[in-house]
Amino acid sequence: MALSDRSRESLLPSFLYASTVRSFTGGAARLPVSAPAPAASGGAGGSPFSIQAPKEKIEMYSPAFYAACTAGGIASCGLTHTAVTPLDLVKCNMQIDPAKYKSITSGFGVLLKEQGARGFFRGWVPTLLGYSAQGACKFGFYEFFKKYYSDIAGPEYAQKYKTLIYLAGSASAEVIADVALCPFEAVKVRVQTQPGFARGLSDGLPKFVRSEGALGLYKGIVPLWGRQIPYTMMKFASFETIVELIYKHAVPIPKSECSKSFQLGISFAGGYVAGVFCAIVSHPADNLVSFLNNAKGATVGDAVKKLGLWGLFTRGLPLRIVMIGSLTGAQWGIYDAFKVMVGLPTTGGVTPAPAATAEAELKASA
Which of the pair, 69 or 41, is modelled with greater confidence? Predict the structure, then answer.
């Protein structure tokens, strides 16, 4: 049974659906509480962070809302993963050939000596396209599934079991996102770890397909799910929890009264801490993905035998913690900055209002 409009609104903090009165006769429009006030033209002392929101407010959970979240996901994941291509390149080679790439510093030295500075960005095209596609699905479907599971649970249980909803929504989104990422990831790893295999995606993709067939592009899908689903569950659930705790215990005023620049700082900090947890949880599967995509016909058993159980959990981990922590913090910062730019609130930090309270607020404002 579909929920009423008021039941749906009861899952959201009141400031997200505060009414906006616009004047079409030249009068000033009344902005919702959460919207930043426009800076006066030419005036001094304006806000140091000011992004003009669009004239038409995007309705929460409308098609435009999900489109905005999808676009924000493309920007956050595609740009950040491409920026850390050199770190990813060294990490993958440390996982595949630890005898040659003994440490982070020596790994960079080997790559610089053998391939020059340009070699640090080998594989950036499949990285950009693959993680843009993944980000679109990851963030867009997370917002969709989070609302969908909240509607199924109802306002009371959505509040009581919000962490389970975060976990279920992020896991569901990542299953879809990895189907989009997997072919690009397969080519990326081969290009980065086998010098001479291909220059990039344009020649690497057809060469990979000729060698292992189209289905070979999905040879690593199960390890990829094993890496990315726990990673994303940790990424979203821990971020939402960390940000909520920061606003609850470390910030003396409500989130709605904080400046947008301050909120984006909280998003980055919460994302960085969440990223450290993500790296630890998903690292064994990350080693498997690199190993399987590098060697034709390789199996999980071969990987465990060569890397060892301890190596599976620790090889390349310090570098990955630095990379994923920075990456995840930047992703949440970019994603929420995009949401602010289009007039949406930043993610997390406010506990959904109980149904009775929301009803009372709606009647009082009527």
Answer: 69
